[in-house]
Task: structure prediction
Amino acid sequence: GNPPAAAQIKGPDIQEWGELGLLTELDDVARENNWDEILPQQIAGIMKYDGAYVAVPVNVHRVNWLWINPEVFEKAGATPPKTLDEFFAAAEKLKAAGFVPVAHGGQPWQDGTVFEGFVLSILGPDDYHKAFVELDEDTLTGDKMVQAFTALKKLRDYLDADAAGREWNRATGMVIDGKAGMQIMGDWAKSEFTAANKVAGKDYQCLPFPGTQGSFTFNIDSLAMFKLSSDENRKAQEDLARSVLDPSFQKDFNLNKGSIPVRLDADMAPFDSCAQQSMKDFKQASQDGNLVPSMAHSMAASSYVQGAIFDVVTNFFNDPAADPQKAAQQLAAAIEAAAQ
Result:
């Protein structure tokens, strides 16, 4: 009975809170500041419940990035990959040269992040949407999903023995320190490179996850606002919402977070080459209908469905004898049970 003025609530969870009737409308601030013009349509839709703004987006994270250490690649004679075949060929060369091919932390959300990359690469954006947003059984159990599990299983050969339970930033550190060649991670990894005084495009490279060029898996941090009785608190909510989308806040926050501004009119001059590429790809994917919500980061489906997917994926990933065909069947069954 004592709600906060604002809380970080993301993706489909915004709709769940909206259905409970607990969120307040922000349409006055939205109109005054032209939110419908400055926000991409797909993102504005996520921030609305029943046609009214109830949340404000802070940033856009791109999840389908591959981070590489070019010096390690050079030493191993490996080529930055554009396809999954090239990705595994590079991993093989890195392994032969004595490097950890892929830095990874064995945690459910990290396993899920890697898995959704394979799904997007193999199934494409339309079938990715069918699988993780529409929860379509034929897509979840189809041949291409079996291929995605097969690729995930193959990845196991290119991790180090200490991957289990490792935090994502420790894995990023392995790429920074030249112990590992690659990491599959969202753009928050960039803040680690920045903190280590590394320069994008020189000390490290960011590439779209192999096979997902032209698509953009998004993760959006957002603040949802609760209904409050005090006029003063209500005014504070509007001030907060206004501030979050202010161009100077968008610049400073996203420079530090590694993400990109959510405003389409943002000046990208102060940002590094990875962020500039991210914004360019984001706008193009938005135009082409290839923006897809990240399953692993609570943007595609309910937390129950996400939890069911994580269970299947992590159990599969940690069982060397697991069968990809069976895993696809288990995935569909687990999602169906969780979605009811």
In short: The first helix runs from residue 12 to 19.
